[in-house]
């Protein structure tokens, strides 16, 4: 019966650059002496790791794999730790000397600007390294999106109201890091003939009222700011209502 063994420290998932060395840890208590055996799983095949019979498992990251540790006592009681994921990024982030890295989140993939037709799927992606592996939270126009807490933001059928500025926060126990902010445009696509007619109507009416908005939120010696993204968005709406043609830039 597994109650004879209690895991006091579970291993934690990590997200690291290829070639990075670190240690997975597992700790347990039992009524007798305990034995440890680590297992790994890659592409649905699970097998014990030869010689991995200690509480700590040193790893040099090569490929993304899952790991678990089995602990048993002399009475054949056995318990498995949580499965943890070691996610390995093949591209090491620029300006990140591994020897100086303490496991704080580092963005390695930013979302990209998109134009999507109404009713079509919208997918945004980001990725971050971190020890422990970062958790994710997406924002639209500065508002937290309650159910978008994964690396991929997925909206099956995009609506006009899904337009706006999106960014994601990756965080762990060492801190947080924000992705670049990107503009997402959701709208009907005009047939080529109508599009040309619209251009002919718009350009002769242009009165030269142009506003350039620049929001800086990535400072070299300061944490990323949220306000510039939302301020630029709000200001651009106001200026457009006043008849300005608005060009918005971030960073």
UniProtKB/TrEMBL annotation:
<dbReference type="InterPro" id="IPR036179">
    <property type="entry name" value="Ig-like_dom_sf"/>
</dbReference>
<dbReference type="InterPro" id="IPR007110">
    <property type="entry name" value="Ig-like_dom"/>
</dbReference>
<feature type="domain" description="Ig-like">
    <location>
        <begin position="5"/>
        <end position="81"/>
    </location>
</feature>
<protein>
    <submittedName>
        <fullName>MALT1 protein</fullName>
    </submittedName>
</protein>
<feature type="domain" description="Ig-like">
    <location>
        <begin position="105"/>
        <end position="185"/>
    </location>
</feature>
<dbReference type="InterPro" id="IPR029030">
    <property type="entry name" value="Caspase-like_dom_sf"/>
</dbReference>
<dbReference type="Pfam" id="PF13927">
    <property type="entry name" value="Ig_3"/>
</dbReference>
<dbReference type="GO" id="GO:0004197">
    <property type="term" value="F:cysteine-type endopeptidase activity"/>
</dbReference>
<keyword id="KW-1015">Disulfide bond</keyword>
<dbReference type="InterPro" id="IPR001309">
    <property type="entry name" value="Pept_C14_p20"/>
</dbReference>
<dbReference type="InterPro" id="IPR003599">
    <property type="entry name" value="Ig_sub"/>
</dbReference>
<dbReference type="InterPro" id="IPR013783">
    <property type="entry name" value="Ig-like_fold"/>
</dbReference>
<dbReference type="InterPro" id="IPR003598">
    <property type="entry name" value="Ig_sub2"/>
</dbReference>
<dbReference type="InterPro" id="IPR011600">
    <property type="entry name" value="Pept_C14_caspase"/>
</dbReference>
<keyword id="KW-0393">Immunoglobulin domain</keyword>
<dbReference type="InterPro" id="IPR052039">
    <property type="entry name" value="Caspase-related_regulators"/>
</dbReference>
<dbReference type="GO" id="GO:0006508">
    <property type="term" value="P:proteolysis"/>
</dbReference>
<feature type="domain" description="Caspase family p20">
    <location>
        <begin position="207"/>
        <end position="251"/>
    </location>
</feature>
<dbReference type="Pfam" id="PF00656">
    <property type="entry name" value="Peptidase_C14"/>
</dbReference>
């Amino acid at each position: 019966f597994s109650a004879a063994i209690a895991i006091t420290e579970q291993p934690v998932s990590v997200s690291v650059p290829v070639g990075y060395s670190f240690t997975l840890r597992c700790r347990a208590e039992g009524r007798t002496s305990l034995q440890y055996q680590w297992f790994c799983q890659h592409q649905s095949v699970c097998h014990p790791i030869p010689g991995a019979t200690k509480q700590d498992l040193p790893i040099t990251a090569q490929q993304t794999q899952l790991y678990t540790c089995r602990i048993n006592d002399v009475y054949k009681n056995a318990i498995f730790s949580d499965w943890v994921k070691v996610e390995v990024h093949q591209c090491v982030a620029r300006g990140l000397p591994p020897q100086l890295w303490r496991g704080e989140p580092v963005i390695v993939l930013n979302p990209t600007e998109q134009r999507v037709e109404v009713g079509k799927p919208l997918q945004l992606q980001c990725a971050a390294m971190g020890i422990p592996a970062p958790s994710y939270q997406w924002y639209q126009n500065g508002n937290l999106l309650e159910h978008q807490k994964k690396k991929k933001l997925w909206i099956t059928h995009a609506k006009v109201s899904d337009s706006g500025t999106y960014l994601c926060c990756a965080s762990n126990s060492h801190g947080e890091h924000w992705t670049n902010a990107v503009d997402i445009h959701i709208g009907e696509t005009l047939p080529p003939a109508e599009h040309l007619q619209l251009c002919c109507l718009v350009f002769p009416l242009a009165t030269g009222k142009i506003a350039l908005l620049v929001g800086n939120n990535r400072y070299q010696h300061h944490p990323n700011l949220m306000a510039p993204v939302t301020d630029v968005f709000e200001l651009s709406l106001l200026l457009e209502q006043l008849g300005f043609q608005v060009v918005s830039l971030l960073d």
